[in-house]
Amino acid sequence: MRVSRTQAAENRETVIDVASRLFRKHGFDGIGLKDLMKGAGLTQGAFYKQFASKEDLEALASRRALEHASRRWSDAAAKNPKDPLGAVIEFYLSAGHREERMDGCPVVALGSDAARQGSDVKASFEAGIREYLELLDGWVGDAHGEDPDGKAMAVLSTMVGAVVLSRAVNDKQLSKQFLQAAAESVLQRSSSSNAQEEPPL
């Protein structure tokens, strides 16, 4: 039975969505096409009608995952406009996010995998990371939105590294301490930065 163009387009989007979650759970090399397509409710044969290669899907799924992650940051910030960075820290450096293997930050879940992939996958990650930095720059940069000292980069590195470390250990207390220490460090960096920007009375 032939699939309509509309249905084929919907199937393609479904595969990208499912792959964005399954790659985060298993890694790029931890799941094959058969299981990816099964997760999307389709056969492996349908894959080659939709995508040029698995790497093509990896790049598209990475982009989708990072777009979703950036929206989560923006949504959290919008709910607390007086303290957008604090709102993002509250969910990102939390035990809940640590356990979100399929829906959490793709840089945490797949960053080391992406480093071993081709240029298309890296391009997806670079675009997503730049989006993270742009958001952070507005919250920790100077009054003109510029970040000459790399504050946004330092904050992102701290946050991503903390979640990676918190997932890598068995000791729940140690895991929690990584998240707490990172949150305190980021908030301290942000508050000291804001204090320097405030004009004297």
TrEMBL record:
Domain of life: Bacteria
UniProt DNA-binding region: 32-51
SUPFAM superfamilies to which the protein is assigned, alphabetical: Homeodomain-like, Tetracyclin repressor-like, C-terminal domain
Pfam families the record matches: TetR_N (PF00440)
Record keywords, A-Z: DNA-binding, Transcription, Transcription regulation
Entry-linked Gene3D superfamilies: Homeodomain-like, Tetracycline Repressor, domain 2
Domain (HTH tetR-type): residue spans on this chain: 9-69
Protein name: TetR/AcrR family transcriptional regulator
Organism: Mesorhizobium abyssinicae
